[in-house]
Amino acid sequence: MPEKSHPRRGSLAYTPKKRAKSQKPRIRAWPEGTSVQLLGFPGYKAGMTQIFMIDDHDESITRGQEISVPVTIIETPPVIACAIRIYGSPKDRNRAITEVWAENLSKDLTRELRTPKEYDQKEALKKAEELLEDQAGDVRLLVHTQPRKSSLSKKKPEILELQIGGDPIMDKWEYAKEALGNEIKVSDVFEEGKYVDAIAVTKGKGTEGPVQRWGVKVQPRKVQQARRHVGTLGPWRPRRIMRSVPNSGQMGYHQRTDCNKRILKMGEDGSEVTPNGGFLRYGPIREEFVMLAGSTPGTTKRLVCLRQAMRPKKGVPTSPPTITHVDTSSQQGG
Q: Is residue 169 located within the same domain as residue 206?
């Protein structure tokens, strides 16, 4: 009789499970956008609530009926395009060859980096246009957030590099020049009903054992040693602990991507979605917001980067849904 087997405990696809270098997520891949516009936008996670909407999925057994949906509210204050970054040819696309910075940068930006006191933007634009002809391979936009406009008690902005959609590099360049130094709203990037990817750093849980971290089975009570550990650390040879052995260590605080989150609502009036007394540990929504179906990685107040869906679903509704009620009851308890 063949020996029984079962899949290993925990996926090795996310190893090594170590702490993220920064709370600011790093986006390493972008979809191929057809229109010339930004493909991503940052925001701050305010919290979760629930709404009632009309189910518009064709194959759903509750189609046309009112259903309850948990949603995440992300506050998205406008960002400012502070610089244009030009990358080299396709063979050297990972090396930035020049940058063009905006004039009259925000004073809060000095909390993040040193800004030049004397800067000739015209000379930088002239140099960039010369490089676009033969050496440039891509054009991206550097933006910084404005946390002062949100309910966060912080002043230091985050600087992110966002991809510009479209194929001709000159079209990207013209879009970047027009946006340089100006505010960009989330409504300029996304639409209601569309799907996005939410990228953020998850909630940190510190050091955990193999049972909590990998899901290994708790051993019987008659074992001589501890019960909440692995039965063996591996074979005699090779004389080392292999990477596939579940061990204790850091759990949480990892960068993760949650794919295909539907934008159910976008608005400028935060009172529409703010609970009585404000969101727990966040407060009221003061600026534009995005309502996503389901949960997103990270804790309250954490930076979440929204990106146009890399692998969009097929056969799903992409038009704005009909929302009948938004739960704004108090979350303060008592």
A: no
